[in-house]
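Batch manifest, entry 17 of 40.
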Amino acid sequence: MLPLRLTDLADRQVPRYTSYPTAPHFHDGVGAENYGRWLGALREAEAPVSLYVHVPYCRSICHYCACTTKATRRDEPVVAYVGRLKREIALVAERTGRLRVSHIHWGGGTPNLLPPDLFDALVADLCDRFDVDPYAEHAIELDPRHVTREGARRLAASGVTRTSLGVQDFAPEVQSAIGRIQPHRVVAAAADAVRAAGIEGLNFDLIYGLPRQTLRSARETAQRAVALAPDRIALFGYAHVPWFRANQRLIDARDLPDVGLRLELAATAREAIEAAGYVPVGIDHFARSDDSLATAAAWGTLRRNFQGYTTDRAETLIGLGPSSVGRLPAGYVQNAADVGAWARAIDDGRLAVVKGRALTPDDRLRGAVIERLLCGFEAELGAIAMAHGASPAALLPALERLEPLIAQDFVRLDGSRLSIVRDAPALARIVASAFDAYLGAGARHSLAA
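Output type: structure tokens
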């Protein structure tokens, strides 16, 4: 057998596995009617749930962006959106009753485009319709270019406890190539504003694999980021999917690093982050050693959902807004991605779910294995199978697919314990994909590196 090279392995296209089955395998056989029943079944739930609120607007669209969002220079569409979002909150709460909520997460788009009074009104509505824990984690994604001291104070007053700043890269030539001009001083001012407002949790998002990145710029970006002392850092690989997001066609593919350089960029940034004392968490997150995310990783309680790695233990996630994905005990659901289609459903008094996936016992088994591999780089297959009332034999075909990695000591199998022992951050998604029963069924994905 010829030696396997990491560059060859990382050149594969595999999902990010923020869910299993992944979103491309949702279908219209699960719709608003199913969702209504699934929500109704939550009325008797005792465990808390999480809420995700999507804001599908930005002032402009960055070239690299793969989020469901659209550009608007005016506030009128945002104001109209908030009115409909309040109606969707009511539609959901009418079916669930006043559920306990342990986590709230605002994503986008650019959630901090919401006028402060409307954001306050939405938070008040959520607190009125649901029983929000006074100690709930309340997180929001922010574009640093639109953060002000007054805006940060308003967020804190509304109960926000954690902010995530989209830093991406500090190099001017990279910012020019991705259509997001954001000098270091802007990010520093945003971080200062958040801290001055008393919001304790501060995350930075960085991206490697962007056009015109070099090893030097990746190192300098990571060093400048850690110098601002966020509690957590996420280091995502850029997913170039121009067949899926037309705005990415504005990026010249000739400026993108090849697989080998992508791996080096990731390793260079990781080295700089870890040298500053951050603890690696999963495949692409880092946290201060006393942060709850690092603690969860150390204790084996780390979870993974549509927001990435999390300490959120809730089994139910309710999504609000266009394209939002929810997970309920029965399965996954997703709202209409188009703002217009979502709005028409809400205006008609209907839930806006257009597709989803009812979970089978096999889905739950494989999803548990995939989550453990991505969170801790190992999975006790026998114990997981037993917990799901399944035979470990159901996972044998996956182990056979991993034989080349096992034979060359990338992966180890001790009894029924599967561990990734070499290059785990780069290989975790590839190893996880061996357990994916739907892989290759018509969906295209980003590179594993």
